[in-house]
């Protein structure tokens, strides 16, 4: 009977393995087909002392459930175990940083549970008694003190004045849409300029001033809000009506800033460079074939002889640029393209299209960085309140995952938006700030009350995720 019971359990176990492997058949096939690539990935991770979370976890489960062997994926057991050691070490280091930062603001029980799980699985030889005891103390400290720190923080936040304040103006208008163009910083800088001048300033105009010395506008990506504001202020400002930067308006006309306008910019820049001398150097993105030309060789030869002639009043380039520079006609564009130096084309088009104006009062944008510590971030909130109380708006650099990931706390300043209002929410009994984003009026956050692309975000989430504050003096 005992033997029969063992056989039954073994059979059930094998069936369980078989079911798992069947459910993950595509994954198994992928790793078997990519075995050499996987081996290189593992070796590379060991050499660089880093890890790739997703491949490691899925491979580990496949081996555990007997779907593949080490030989199947061209990795020795020793190599994989070494990879596992690095995974545990790096993951715990990352969790350690997350726990230390998050515990300043909220409960970290989920992160501590994951840390404990990895702690219990990690049987690495490199871990000595001192390291193990240090980890245990770290876990105990945050379990005992994490919620206390959160309570203290909440008490300090409650002491902050939170009167209702809305500094939006008619000039700011609706939330603009940057589409997939990485110029969020220029939208914030233009908001700050708009609020100060009471004239709707073009975000693309601000970006052009910031990227003034960039060789190619079409490949320019990301930037600094403070520097963009100051560059545009010095260079002179362009109105939104003269240089549209809202993808909403392009969409109304069947256009798309990222997928249609910028490729046109790239093609024009390539044509204007006057450096295309052979077939291999021809423009790569859907170059408009002029009616009189039949082959690529003829097109390249045509561009080489006279690049300006490839731009004509019926071409897609002209039609698209007309949306960017509505005040210029074909003759204006053609003349500027013929006279512009390499790399200066779009700056010249901007100057010709816009009635450049400079504010009649001196102003300068400044930025303050705040460390991910409670007292530092409380200083940030107090400064933000001071700005709003004066009737101004502010810019922030922060992690936008707060809009979709609940209880997100990071120190990543990868996105920029404006803060334009403050209110006390009687339902939640919390102070909230209105983030004016640049993802269009249609965007809705999963986590926060959204009003036409503006999000009401609680003070603790602004504290936990704002890395830098931008303001004007």
Radius of gyration: 29 Å
Bin the strand percentage.
Answer: 5-15%
Task: Give start-end ranges of low-pLDDT stretches.
Answer: 1-14, 125-130, 215-219, 247-261, 271-313
- The strand count comes to 8
Terminal Cα span: 86 Å
Query: What proportion of the residues is helical, as a percent range?
Result: 40-55%
- Principal-axis shape equals globular
Major β-sheet annotation:
8 strands, antiparallel
- Indicate the structural class: alpha+beta
Give the number of helices: 18
Element string (H = helix, E = strand): HHHHHHHEHHHHHHHHHEHEEEEEHE
What's the structural domain tally? Answer: 3
Chain-averaged pLDDT: 70
What is shown here, in short?
The protein has 473 residues and is α+β, with helices and mostly antiparallel strands. Helix content is 51%, strand content 10%. The chain folds into three domains: 23-149, no CATH class; 160-170 and 362-472, Alpha-Beta Complex (Cathepsin B, Chain A), CATH 3.90.70; 202-353, no CATH class.
């Amino acid at each position: 009977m005992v033997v029969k019971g063992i056989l039954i359990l073994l059979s059930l176990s094998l069936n369980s393995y078989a079911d798992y492997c069947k459910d993950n058949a595509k994954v198994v096939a992928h790793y078997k087909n990519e075995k050499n690539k996987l081996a290189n990935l593992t070796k590379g991770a060991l050499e660089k002392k880093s890890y790739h979370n997703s491949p490691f976890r899925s491979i580990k489960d496949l081996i555990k459930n007997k779907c593949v062997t080490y030989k199947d994926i061209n990795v020795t057991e020793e190599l994989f175990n070494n990879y596992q050691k690095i995974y545990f070490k790096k993951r715990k280091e990352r969790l350690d940083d997350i726990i230390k930062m998050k515990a300043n603001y909220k409960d970290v029980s989920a992160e501590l549970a994951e840390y404990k799980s990895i702690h219990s699985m990690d049987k690495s030889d490199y871990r000595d008694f001192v390291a193990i005891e240090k980890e245990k103390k770290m876990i105990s400290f945050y379990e005992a003190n994490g919620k206390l720190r959160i309570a203290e923080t909440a008490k300090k936040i409650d002491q902050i004045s939170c009167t209702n304040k809305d500094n939006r103006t008619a000039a700011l208008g609706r939330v603009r849409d940057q589409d997939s163009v990485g110029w969020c910083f220029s939208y914030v800088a233009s908001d700050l300029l708009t609020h100060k001048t009471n004239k709707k300033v073009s975000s693309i105009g601000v970006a052009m001033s910031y990227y003034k010395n960039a060789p190619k506008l079409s490949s320019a990506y990301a930037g600094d809000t403070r520097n963009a504001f100051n560059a545009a202020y010095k260079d002179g400002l362009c109105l939104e009506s003269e240089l549209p930067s809202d993808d909403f308006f392009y969409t109304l006309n069947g256009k798309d800033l990222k997928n249609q306008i910028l490729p046109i910019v790239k093609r024009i820049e390539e044509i204007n460079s006057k450096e295309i001398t052979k077939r291999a150097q021809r423009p790569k993105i859907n170059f408009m074939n002029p009616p009189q030309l039949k082959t690529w060789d003829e097109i390249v030869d045509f561009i080489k002889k006279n690049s300006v002639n490839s731009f004509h009043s019926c071409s897609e380039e002209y039609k698209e640029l007309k949306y960017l520079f509505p005040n210029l006609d074909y003759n204006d564009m053609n003349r500027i393209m013929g006279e512009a130096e390499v790399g200066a084309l779009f700056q010249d088009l901007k100057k010709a299209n816009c009635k450049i104006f400079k504010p009649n009062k001196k102003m300068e944008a400044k930025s303050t960085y705040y460390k991910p510590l409670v007292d530092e971030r409380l200083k940030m909130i107090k400064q933000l309140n001071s700005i709003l109380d004066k009737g101004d708006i502010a810019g922030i650099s922060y992690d936008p995952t707060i809009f979709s990931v609940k209880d997100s706390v990071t120190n990543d300043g990868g996105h920029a938006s404006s803060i334009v209002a403050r209110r006390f929410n009687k339902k939640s009994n919390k102070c909230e700030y209105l983030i004016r984003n640049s993802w269009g009026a249609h965007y809705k956050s999963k986590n926060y009350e959204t009003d036409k692309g503006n999000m009401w975000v609680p003070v603790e989430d602004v504290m936990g995720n704002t890395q830098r504050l931008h303001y004007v003096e």
